[in-house]
């Protein structure tokens, strides 16, 4: 089982584990992990991209992009969050705990990103890079093997973009059209259009998951996916 990275500043680690719902119930607290989550998201995108660029020199841009997308998607980050113990360590409000927040994929993924942002501030980019390599290299190897065996691994948004360009010389346009649920369990609804015509809709715990679901819906309507 993987572990949390070694922090020098315990306060940064505590902030990374603190969800908004916990702060809302503690009058003396003001800092949650959302800014660290923002930072961690950017660092993950860069370092995972760099890792794949170095590890897979034969892959083209589209293949690298698809692989990175699958590595940093909510389900994968949530799984890594569980593996490093975030399910028990997250500081959640009573309402979030009651709503099974400790196993909520969105909360786990967000907390994982916050941990990465906090560890960067604590120990620097090279330390984060070494830590992420330990976590992501085995996962990347598994996904590459899966990719070679399953055409369904192809990213839906990329496939629908290819179809839209081939048929209309236009890129798909995605939009979030609805947001429901409490702050700790949001559900987004997205739509995708080509030349202003609606082709698909989808829902997800994150905006990127909703847009991916919309692309999958569009592919089914166009009979491009099983």
Automatic annotation (TrEMBL):
InterPro entries: dsRBD_dom, RNase_III, RNase_III_dom, RNase_III_sf
Active site: 41, 113
CDD domains: DSRM_RNAse_III_family, RIBOc
Record carries keyword Chloroplast: no
Subcellular locations according to the entry: Cytoplasm
Reactions it catalyzes: Endonucleolytic cleavage to 5'-phosphomonoester
GO MF annotations in UniProt: double-stranded RNA binding; metal ion binding; ribonuclease III activity; rRNA binding
Primary location group: cytoplasm
An annotated GO BP: regulation of gene expression
Subunit structure: Homodimer.
Family as reported in the entry's similarity comment: Belongs to the ribonuclease III family.
UniProt name for this protein: Ribonuclease 3
Organism: Microcystis aeruginosa Ma_QC_Ch_20071001_S25D
Lineage of origin: Bacteria, Bacillati, Cyanobacteriota, Cyanophyceae, Oscillatoriophycideae
């Amino acid at each position: 089982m993987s572990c949390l990275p070694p922090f020098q500043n315990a306060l940064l680690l505590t902030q990374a584990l603190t969800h908004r719902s916990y702060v809302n119930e503690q009058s003396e607290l003001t800092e949650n992990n959302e800014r660290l989550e923002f930072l961690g998201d950017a660092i993950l995108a860069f370092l995972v991209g760099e890792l794949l660029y170095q590890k897979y020199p034969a892959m083209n841009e589209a293949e690298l992009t698809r692989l990175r997308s699958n590595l940093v998607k909510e389900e994968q980050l949530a799984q890594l969050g569980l593996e490093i113990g975030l399910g028990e360590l997250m500081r959640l409000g009573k309402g979030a705990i009651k709503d099974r927040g400790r196993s909520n994929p969105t909360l786990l993924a967000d907390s994982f990103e916050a941990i990465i942002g906090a560890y960067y501030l604590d120990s620097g980019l090279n330390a984060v890079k070494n830590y992420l390599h330990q976590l992501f290299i085995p996962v990347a190897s598994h996904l590459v093997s899966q990719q070679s065996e399953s055409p369904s691994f192809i990213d839906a948004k990329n496939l629908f973009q290819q179809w839209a360009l081939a048929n209309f010389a236009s890129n798909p346009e995605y939009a979030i059209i609805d947001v429901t649920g409490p702050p700790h369990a949001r559900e987004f609804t997205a739509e995708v259009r080509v030349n202003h015509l609606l082709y698909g809709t989808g829902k997800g715990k994150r905006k990127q998951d909703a847009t991916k679901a919309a692309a999958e819906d569009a592919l089914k309507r166009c009979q491009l996916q099983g």
